[in-house]
Design brief:
This protein is an alpha+beta fold and 154 residues long. The chain has one domain: 2-Layer Sandwich (Alpha-D-Glucose-1,6-Bisphosphate, Chain A, domain 4). The chain is built from two helices and six strands, in the order ββββββαα. It has a six-stranded antiparallel sheet with strand order 1-2-3-4-5-6, with no helix packed on it. It is globular, with a radius of gyration of 16 Å. The mean pLDDT is 85.
């Protein structure tokens, strides 16, 4: 969770993220503007989400939904709700990722659904690769953990 909530760095590590700009951040809440690359012939998708991270025991949960300031248009979603949950299972971590999006346009629904599923699979693979890379440096890992603890501090 310490890695995935580092929104500004998602651009360099998660394939379809072209931009992730934190507009507001207070404690465990962030309002983030994302720009995603969509498959041809669709234009890039831009939207703004509210994200809140919390800890429940050893489990971390980042939940998000569409912010009212989110742009409207052909490739902008009309509804977004999701979560990213990490939970220890023995010496490993289980990642649960759900991102429910209703596209702003009803065009090409089969293509949009396939692209959405592919994007979720890519995001998980990219995130695991990103975490593995960070885990090789104790200094970098510590910096991410400190930032997460600061987000969760009362």
């Amino acid at each position: 969770m310490a890695v995935f909530t580092n929104y500004a760095e998602q651009r360099g590590h998660i394939t379809d993220v072209l931009a992730a700009t934190v507009e507001v951040q207070h404690g465990n809440y962030a309002r983030v503007r994302f720009v995603y690359d969509l498959p041809w012939p669709l234009p890039h998708s831009e939207y703004v989400v509210n994200g809140t991270v919390r800890q429940e025991g050893e489990t971390y949960l980042l939940a998000w939904d569409l912010h009212p300031s989110s742009p409207r248009g052909l490739s902008a979603p009309q509804y977004v709700e999701g979560y990213f949950r990490t939970q220890p299972v023995g010496p490993r971590t289980l990642i649960l990722y759900c991102n429910y999006i209703i596209p702003g346009s009803g065009l090409l629904p089969g293509m949009v659904n396939r692209a959405g599923l592919q994007a979720m699979q890519t995001t998980i693979k990219d995130t695991v690769r990103w975490v593995d890379a960070i885990a090789t440096s104790s200094e970098t890992s510590s910096r991410h953990l400190v930032r997460l603890r600061e987000m969760l501090a009362p």
